[in-house]
């Protein structure tokens, strides 16, 4: 299993977040802004990586850190799908999943969106300000 690394702007613009997923550490990071048109393709590769990780290392801890300043509606849908995937993969081993979501303190609406996403997906999200 390989690392998944995408640096801001590597797709030709700053519409894409920084991505860093490591099987060695069992940690994934999504940071920056996300308002690309092809969010299904972009986040699909991340969800494939998560599936592969859980398949290759069943029961091993996985930690996801999100530090998104902004994301559009299509990204929101993909993030919710990612939370549903995590809820499914870790349904019987919730103690092995840790999701930390940092948001700008000046954006209380984002706090509400993250809270709703956690409640609706069944994923316990630790929400903190940046």
Describe the structure.
The structure is a single chain. The protein is an alpha/beta fold and 130 residues long. The protein has a single domain, classed as Transcription Regulator spoIIAA. It is built from three helices and six strands, in the order E-E-E-H-E-H-E-H-E. Helix 1 runs parallel beside helix 2.
List the main descriptive attributes of the protein structure presented here.
single chain; 130 residues; alpha/beta; Transcription Regulator spoIIAA; six-stranded mixed β-sheet; 3 helices; 6 strands; 29% strand
Q: How are the strands ordered across the major sheet?
A: 1-2-3-4-5-6
Named CATH topology: Transcription Regulator spoIIAA
The overall pLDDT average reads 92
Q: Share of helix among residues? A: 25-40%
What is the level-2 CATH architecture name? 2-Layer Sandwich
Q: How many domains, in number, for the residues?
A: 1
Question: Secondary structure elements and their pairing?
Answer:
Blueprint lengths: L3 E3 L11 E5 L4 E8 L4 H18 L5 E10 L1 H17 L7 E7 L4 H14 L3 E5 L1
Parallel strand pairs: 3-4, 4-5, 5-6
Antiparallel strand pairs: 1-2, 2-3
Short description:
With 130 residues, the protein is α/β, with parallel strands linked by helices. The protein has helices spanning 39-56, 73-89, 108-121; strands spanning 4-6, 18-22, 27-34, 62-71, 97-103, 125-129.
